[in-house]
Amino acid sequence: MSEPAKPWGGPLAGLRVIDLTRVLAGPLAAQFLGDLGAEILKVEPPGKGDETRGFAPFVGGESHYFLGLNRGKRSLVLDLRKPEGADILRRLVATADVLVENFRPGVMERLGLGAEALMALNPRLIYCAISGFGMTGPLRDKPSFDIVTQALTGVLSVNGEPGHPPAKLGLPIGDMSGGIFGAIAILSALHERTTTGRGRLIDVSLYDGTMSLLGYLSQLAFLSGEDPRPMGSAHPSVVPYDGFPARDGTIIIACLADGFWPKLCNALGCSEMGADPRYATMALRREHRAEIEPRIAAITATRTVAEWRRLLEQHDVPHAPVLGVTAALSHPHAAAREMVVEVEHPAAGPLRMLGRPIKFPGERQAPLEPPPMLGQHTVEVLRRELGLTEEQVEKLRGLGVIHGPAA
């Protein structure tokens, strides 16, 4: 009997990424690369490691926040402020493919570990710097977090209900934009390297990434000269595209194409509105928003969410209930798409995590691994990659350069 085929490592199998990041944007970028098969060596400072390891609540002593952004990585604790620690990083970089860091501009240079110095050691190195505002511009040296980014890019101003103070998005879109665009940039540089044989410095900022997501809202501002207004769940151009009241909650209805409008009206039991020429196109419905939306709301309020789901599904109208995060994670489609997986964590035990967002039909990728404990792989990596002896490891441990479990 033939043995079952080994799982596929992923399209980035064999690539090594040095992850010097912490908190959210950088760890997310590196995690995406790990999902695609790259080996991620997460280098953390002595003491508490990545700041998010201290973010409550905890399971088995491990932070929920850290667990959500660092699956499948190898954790090394190195004190880069000590010459011996900086030397170990240089030796690891010499054979690495990618380095990602999200310090403020200038921090790595002050450590003697900036892009120019490290790329001189390894010309094939792709060095990705992720920061709040980027390497240039008047805000270059300012600290930034997600809510600051949302405020300065206009995103915060368009979120919330009309007539109320602006509200930040529940998802940290500013930080996440840095992670997403950081991963895209690295992948593009890896492709370029196949032709040039050389690496590249990448400058990714949360500010640029978040502003780029303004999309059509930026064009509204350019064309009108006015600020787009917060509209709750409604859409500035599409009607109906909103949450509507049901007897026991809210039902989302989204008619982002004219063909859905008569279908919706049939489902609502008001086919005459679907045939009304005043509402025939998206542009006309936008003009008559004040007439259309209250009429829909009055009808949807007469039935439950479950009843509307059945009716709207029968008429092929895009719709959804408003699920809480727990319900979303337990949805049958999330299970079918393997967006929730279970791993065994050495401290937290059985641990449910998000799965890979990118699928490759026809391939069975290796199971995801749990996020690492602080310094869990320090000794393993130093022995495997640098060939350090037990005596050398213990000397570094005694100097406070490294931290991690004994072999």
From TrEMBL:
Cited Pfam families: CoA_transf_3
Keyword presence, Transferase: yes
Entry's Gene Ontology molecular function annotations: CoA-transferase activity
InterPro entries for the chain: CoA-transferase_III_domain, CoA-Trfase_fam_III, CoA-Trfase_III_dom3_sf, CoA-Trfase_III_dom_1_sf
Key words, A-Z: Transferase
Protein name: CoA transferase
Organism in which the protein naturally occurs: Neoroseomonas soli
Lineage of source species: Bacteria, Pseudomonadati, Pseudomonadota, Alphaproteobacteria, Acetobacterales
